[in-house]
UniProtKB/TrEMBL annotation, chain A:
The keyword Plastid does not apply. InterPro entries: PigQ/GPI1 (IPR007720). Residues 22-39 have a biased composition (Pro residues). One of its GO terms (cellular component) is membrane. The chain crosses the membrane at residues 264-284, 327-345, 392-410, 422-445, 494-518, 524-548. Keywords: Membrane, Transmembrane, Transmembrane helix. This is Phosphatidylinositol glycan anchor biosynthesis class Q. Residues 15-45 are annotated as: Disordered. It comes from Molossus molossus (Pallas' mastiff bat). PANTHER family: PHOSPHATIDYLINOSITOL N-ACETYLGLUCOSAMINYLTRANSFERASE SUBUNIT Q (PTHR21329:SF3), PHOSPHATIDYLINOSITOL N-ACETYLGLUCOSAMINYLTRANSFERASE SUBUNIT Q-RELATED (PTHR21329). It comes from the Eukaryota. One of its GO terms (biological process) is GPI anchor biosynthetic process. The keyword Isomerase does not apply.
UniProtKB/TrEMBL annotation, chain B:
Pfam families: PIG-H. Belongs to the PIGH family. Pathway: Glycolipid biosynthesis; glycosylphosphatidylinositol-anchor biosynthesis. GO terms for cellular component: glycosylphosphatidylinositol-N-acetylglucosaminyltransferase (GPI-GnT) complex. Keywords: Membrane, Transmembrane, Transmembrane helix. The chain crosses the membrane at residues 36-56, 62-82. This is Phosphatidylinositol glycan anchor biosynthesis class H. It comes from the Eukaryota. GO terms for biological process: GPI anchor biosynthetic process.
Length: 630, 188
């Protein structure tokens, strides 16, 4: 407190020494600070200004006395201290340094005040000297921070040189000291709250709410932190890197190497993508097959990602950089898992065992299907079906299965070799291997798909016929031009034939519906298995692993905001707060940095799925061209 | 300056409200709920284990017993880490913002800080909760697009659910600080 009281005595003021009034809460119904009673002219009430907030880096707390360099944010009345300039210095050099940094960072830096650290007993002359500095570096308001030996509490004073009401008498403000960790604030990336709309979130740094301005200031004044105390500079600074600039040899090497590596890989990738766009692959049947195979979709997706990662232009902003890093980690993990699978598959002849197991399984499935059909051809679950139609449908499907089994047996000698080659593709990544597995399942259950399509088509035909004949039954018809149901007068024979057909269809419906139901359930089973595989692939594709790792190991790098902790407080001294980084919760990390997935799978809502099933429309595991995307 | 008052929550349970006045511009309110009682913990554990033992005598499969132990342990861990909130703190600092902290029984803390520029007001609101009408304190946030609109309502003391008398205490103190903010012309 020594310096403050002395400083005020030197200035010849009679202002109240305790700026921060601690008073009991009940006694202070209106917490606005009283205006300085003596200094101000009688009767004139100064409007209570905002509490002055001094953001002070914790690394400077043990620095020697000197000048506070930083930025003054007038709209929030906050002073962001960035560094301390030590004695001795030449004022003109300090101003030059600030001008240089200002040019590099495009923010207004200034000398904000003085910093006084009493290691020994306070010398009388220093107080006056610091007081005098205020006239050299004129700043409004002029901060005077002082730390005494053996005391945890600091004194802080902000002096206004020009007070509109009473010129000549410097006014004072309430001051609040907020400590921050400069390194963490510099490295952290502030994520605006999710409540903000997107267009607002985009320019959050530009519009700069109170704390975003602080983060922005620290992040942009990196030029100030480049010099450490081993430099032969003229001005000695104290900041987070003043004990030595942080750098890593590995990072520097990686930075040097990344340029040529990216160039080479980008060239290779462009060759691959040129080959894939060759006209041979665009002929009709091939292009159709490519679009339906999930392996091709996955490969295309990976190729796009790799071209994005190794594109030679620099990432524009941090979000793009994070996306690149996330993609790279995702690809690397994918390939690593793929190699693990490869080594597992090719060790101990597992491919052979798998191939030996595959044919019996396919046989078994076909056999089970035959049993099911024979059950359906009798009286399934005690239902009495139309015998003739039942027999026709059953025989048709049985013949189909017979064809399928002979096809499988024709294939069986080659299956091992095919599997061996497909196993090699696991070195492209686990996702590719999984996609191939999904395609194999689709090919092996092709008969189920066929049955489903036949059943669905028959069922759909019956449902359509029944609905139009039901309209005829009621004396109505569907008007195609107006897209509505009109009334219509039918002839007697028309009505007779229509009613007869209606009756026939109604009595045949249960048989078809039963076949449709059974095969739809089988089809849904296959689609579910494929869907689970695709879910796994999508998970590997879209999980932002780099961001998650960053959140786990360096929680301050991704910040959702800040949190404050009130430090020990003594009456009459400024309030001291510790500002800490509030890390982003994991679910928001995933939500913010999720990579776009393949996007080739349809997204049915449950109601539309049920509707489609009821009316016998086909359900595809891929997205149809006419589908509207929800 | 610190004092402690005793209130009750909407179910009649005891709540302790600690008020800390650091300075005229900075206040903290800390609501502590009662800790996890040994009686309820014992009751739940005994129920699960007795049910598991009953199933074991029926099926004679010892997997059920080990599953019951794991379920109790995991359930307790999850409850302490994600559900049970021991203390809720509201820190209001003039011209800086409002900070809400909830400390879980396991020691996890989740903090939300709202800058003063975004705070429109602090109010007490009524809500229908189950079969009764309760009061809660909430913070209204400014809509960045529309100057007079409200973009979001953030409830405070969500898990403690104190009664109106406790809320009024907190509300008055908050309003004192907010009134100071409104008196300053420079505040945005």
């Amino acid at each position: 407190m020594g310096l403050v009281s002395r400083g005020m005595a030197a200035a010849g003021l009679g202002t109240a020494p305790a700026v921060v009034r601690p008073g009991p809460p009940d006694a202070v119904p209106n917490p606005t600070p009283n205006p300085p009673p003596e200094g101000a002219a009688p009767g004139s009430s100064r409007v209570p200004s905002m509490v002055l907030k001094a953001f002070f880096p914790t690394c400077c707390a043990s620095a020697d006395s000197g000048l506070l360099v930083g930025r003054w944010v007038p709209e929030q009345s906050s002073a962001v201290v960035l560094a301390v300039v030590h004695f001795p210095f030449i004022p003109i050099q300090v101003k030059e340094l600030l001008a240089q940094v200002q040019q590099a960072s495009r923010i207004g830096l200034a000398v904000l005040g003085t910093w006084c650290h009493h290691r020994q007993e306070p010398e009388e002359s220093l107080g006056h000297f610091l007081e005098g500095l205020g006239t050299i570096f004129s700043h409004e308001p002029w901060l005077q921070l002082c730390r005494e030996r053996g005391s945890k509490f600091w004194s802080c004073k902000a002096t206004h040189w020009q007070v509109p009401i009473s010129p000549g008498a410097p006014g004072e403000d309430q001051v609040m000291l907020i400590f921050y960790d400069q390194r963490k604030v510099l490295l952290s990336q502030l994520h605006p709250p999710a409540a903000l709309p997107d267009h607002q979130a985009g320019d959050a740094t530009a519009s700069a709410g109170g704390l975003a301005a602080v983060f922005d200031t620290v992040a942009r004044s990196e030029a100030l932190f480049r010099s450490d105390r081993f430099d032969e500079g003229l001005v000695r600074l104290s900041h987070w890197q003043s004990e030595g600039v942080e750098a890593s040899i590995l990072v520097e090497l990686a930075k040097r190497a990344s340029g040529p590596v990216c160039l080479l890989l980008a060239y290779l990738l462009s060759l691959i993508s040129a080959a894939s766009t060759c006209w041979v692959f665009k002929l009709w049947p091939l292009s159709f097959i490519w679009s339906k195979l999930s392996t091709c979709e996955q490969l295309r997706h990976r190729l796009e990602q790799l071209t994005f990662i190794f594109s030679t232009q620099k990432a524009e902003n941090t979000s793009q950089l994070m996306r690149k890093a996330n993609m790279l980690v995702s690809v690397l993990l994918d390939v690593a898992l793929g190699f693990a699978l490869l080594s597992w598959l090719h060790g101990k002849d597992r491919i052979g065992q798998l191939a030996d197991a595959l044919v019996p399984v396919a046989d078994r499935v076909a056999e089970e299907l035959q049993h099911l059909l024979q059950w359906l051809m009798g009286a399934p679950a005690g239902l009495k079906m139309n015998r003739a139609l039942d027999q026709v449908l059953g025989r048709f499907f049985l013949y189909h299965i017979h064809l399928w089994i002979s096809y499988i047996h024709l294939m069986s000698p080659f299956i091992e070799r095919i599997l061996w080659h497909m196993g090699l593709s696991a070195c492209l990544g686990l996702t590719v291997a999984l996609s191939i597995l999904s395609d194999i399942i689709a090919l092996l259950t092709f008969h189920i798909y066929c049955f489903y399509v036949y059943g669905a088509r028959l069922y759909c035909l019956k449902i359509c016929g029944l609905s139009s004949l039901w309209r005829l039954f009621r004396g109505k018809k569907w008007n195609v031009l107006r897209q509505r149901v009109d009334s219509c007068s039918y002839d007697l024979d028309q009505l007779f034939i229509g009613t007869l057909l209606f009756t026939v269809l109604v009595f045949l419906l249960p048989t078809t519906a039963l076949y449709y139901l059974v095969f739809t359930l089988l089809r849904l089973l296959v689609v579910t298995v494929q869907g689970l595989i695709h879910l796994l692939v999508d998970l590997i594709n879209s999980l932002p692993l780099y961001a998650l790792g960053l959140r786990l190991c360096r929680p301050y790098r991704l910040s959702a905001g800040v949190k404050f902790q009130v430090l020990e407080h003594e009456a009459g001294r400024p309030l001291r707060l510790l500002m800490q980084i509030n890390p982003l919760p994991y679910n928001r990390v995933v939500h913010t940095y999720r990579l776009p997935s393949c996007g080739c799978h349809p997204k049915h809502s449950w109601s539309s799925l049920c509707r489609k099933l009821f009316f016998g429309e086909l359900i595809y595991p891929w997205r149809q061209r006419g589908d509207k995307q929800d | 300056m610190e004092d402690e008052l005793s209130f009750s929550d909407i179910y009649g349970g005891r709540l302790a409200l600690q008020r800390r006045y650091y300075s005229p511009s900075c206040r903290e309110f800390c609501l502590s709920c009662p800790r996890l009682s040994l009686r309820s913990l014992t009751a739940v554990t005994c129920t699960v284990w007795l049910a598991a033992y009953g199933l074991f005598t029926l099926c004679e499969n010892s997997m059920i017993l080990s599953a019951a132990i794991f379920i109790t342990l995991l359930g307790l861990l999850g409850y302490l880490h994600f559900v049970k909130i021991d203390q809720e703190t509201l820190l209001i600092i003039d011209s800086l913002g409002i900070q809400m902290t909830s400390s879980y029984a396991s020691g996890k803390e989740s903090t939300t800080f709202i800058e003063m520029g975004k705070v429109k007001d602090v109010i007490i609101n009524e809500a229908i909760y189950m079969q009764k009408v309760i009061y809660y304190l909430c913070i209204l946030l400014n809509d960045p697009v529309e100057p007079h609109g409200i973009s979001q309502v953030v409830p405070v003391f969500q898990s403690a659910k104190p009664r109106l008398d406790c809320l009024i205490e907190v509300y008055r103190s908050c309003q004192e600080i907010l009134a100071h903010r409104k008196a300053t012309p420079t505040s945005s």
